[in-house]
Amino acid sequence: MEQSAVELAEPFTFVVGTDGVLRLVPRRSEHVACAGGDMVLGAGEIGFLREADRWTVSEVSNQSTGYCPDVSSWAEVARALDAVELGRPSGFTHEVVFRRCPDCQEHNIVREGDFVCVFCGSDLPATWNVDPLVRRPGAQPLTDGGEEDGRLAPGQ
Question: Per the confidence metrics, is the pTM higher than 0.85?
Answer without folding.
Answer: no
